[in-house]
């Protein structure tokens, strides 16, 4: 029996932070849009995080100093926005949730990128995969307003390079038998892990394209780059990559910190602030259907020294009251131990376990019966 090919997708959201800004204010859509990280020292200092494709036509690039981007866009009606990670995370979560529904296995790799193994969903068929990707792209666009680019290949490596080859709003399908030919003419730095240093080293060996690398003697690669990298480069260049698409492990803890309006030793005043933090934490814990076994607090004192305290619960819990009760008693202790005023507070829960949702248990119960 022939072993079935995998069908793997990489989805990357187009000019993501800038597209989020367009989503929030559609009137800027046809103008150059630059999202910047302002260092805060002067109004002008900082760097470009990303920009829309209109701005890119003028030569604006990620990482470029903002003053340079301003100069390139002089005379245009360019719009500059500061990064707003909270908003981008919200948009990202919505898209990720939709994508997840299309996958047999799902792996989010960053705020704007995820791998999907869709082998079962498309029965290993790359023609079907193309239609499936089109449907998924349209769904994401309709629900969230965001366009994404998709690469489809027999593994993560090919899917990633395919996706990068056509943006924005791209869809590039590379069938298994086309994979090596697809990679061959591309520069070696299209491969994950080949940065400036490695590619100039390879260049000095006469390796310019992935095709050159694929043909290069593997023993020599190992001698030059070491065993792990040498084998990796050889395999990657030959479109071989067996990394599974897998869900990233749960976060180890969920926490929030906040600064008090004024330094204080007033327990009720402190607990008002921690209640806000707990609301947020509780929301995330509930969404992820987690139970926790540890509650911790953190405080920064008026002299900027910091301390943390935690308790381990006897039973895993998942309710807000348990967090509140323990936070109160931890801060009571805290205030008893120090004479200083508190300036900043944090709350954290950890020691997670995940329970099956009630409904699922019921349905599986009925299925068995
Ligand atoms: P593209 O090429 O359409 O995928 O454009 P982006 O902007 O989505 O680029 P990508 O996928 O490489 O990066 C995703 C986000 O990460 C991007 O919207 C902003 C941020 N980012 C990327 N490169 C840089 C950088 O050099 N500096 C900073 N501060 N942020 C960056
Ligand atoms: Ca992107
Ligand atoms: Ca990306």
How are the elements arranged and paired?
Layout: E1 8-13, H1 16-24, E2 33-38, E3 46-51, H2 53-57, H3 66-72, E4 79-82, H4 85-100, E5 105-110, E6 113-117, H5 126-144, E7 148-153, H6 156-164, E8 171-173, H7 179-183, H8 196-204, H9 210-215, H10 218-225, H11 227-237, E9 253-264, H12 267-287, E10 290-301, E11 306-317, H13 320-337, E12 342-350, E13 353-354, H14 358-368
Parallel strand pairs: 2-4, 7-8
Antiparallel strand pairs: 1-6, 1-7, 2-3, 5-6, 9-12, 10-11, 10-12, 10-13
Helix pairs in contact: 4-5, 10-11, 12-13
Bound molecules: 2'-deoxyguanosine-5'-triphosphate (DGT) and calcium ion (2 copies).
* The first-level CATH class name of the largest domain: Alpha Beta
Strand content: 15-25%
Q: From the helix content, strand content and strand pairing, which structural class follows? A: alpha+beta
SSE order: EHEEHHEHEEHEHEHHHHHEHEEHEEH
Quantity of strands, as a count = 13
Neighbour order of strands in the largest sheet:
5-6-1-7-8
* Structural domain count: 4
| First-last Cα distance | 36 Å
The CATH topology name of the largest domain reads: Dna Ligase, domain 1
Rg, nearest Å = 25 Å
Task: Provide tags for this entry.
369 residues, alpha+beta, Alpha-Beta Plaits, MutS, DNA mismatch repair protein, domain I, DNA polymerase, domain 1, 5-stranded mixed beta sheet, 14 helices, globular, disordered C terminus, binds 2'-deoxyguanosine-5'-triphosphate, binds calcium ion
Commentary on this structure:
With 369 residues, the chain is an alpha+beta fold. The chain folds into 4 domains: 8-13 and 87-181, Reverse transcriptase/Diguanylate cyclase domain (Alpha-Beta Plaits); 17-83, MutS, DNA mismatch repair protein, domain I (3-Layer(aba) Sandwich); 184-237, DNA polymerase, domain 1, CATH 1.10.150; 253-368, DNA polymerase, Y-family, little finger domain (Dna Ligase, domain 1, 2-Layer Sandwich), CATH 3.30.1490. The protein is 42% helix and 24% strand. The protein has 14 helices and 13 strands. It has helices at residues 16-24, 53-57, 66-72, 85-100, 126-144, 156-164, 179-183, 196-204, 210-215, 218-225, 227-237, 267-287, 320-337, 358-368, and strands spanning 8-13, 33-38, 46-51, 79-82, 105-110, 113-117, 148-153, 171-173, 253-264, 290-301, 306-317, 342-350, 353-354. The chain has a 5-stranded mixed beta sheet. Strands 9, 10, 11, 12 and 13 form a 5-stranded antiparallel beta sheet that branches. Strands 3-2-4 form a 3-stranded mixed beta sheet, with helices on both faces. Strand 2 (33-38) and strand 3 form a beta hairpin. Helix 4 packs across helix 5 (126-144). The longest helix has 21 residues, at 267-287. Bound molecules: 2'-deoxyguanosine-5'-triphosphate and calcium ion (CA) (2 copies). 2'-deoxyguanosine-5'-triphosphate (DGT) is lined by residues 12-17, 37, 47, 49-50, 62-63, 112, 167-168.
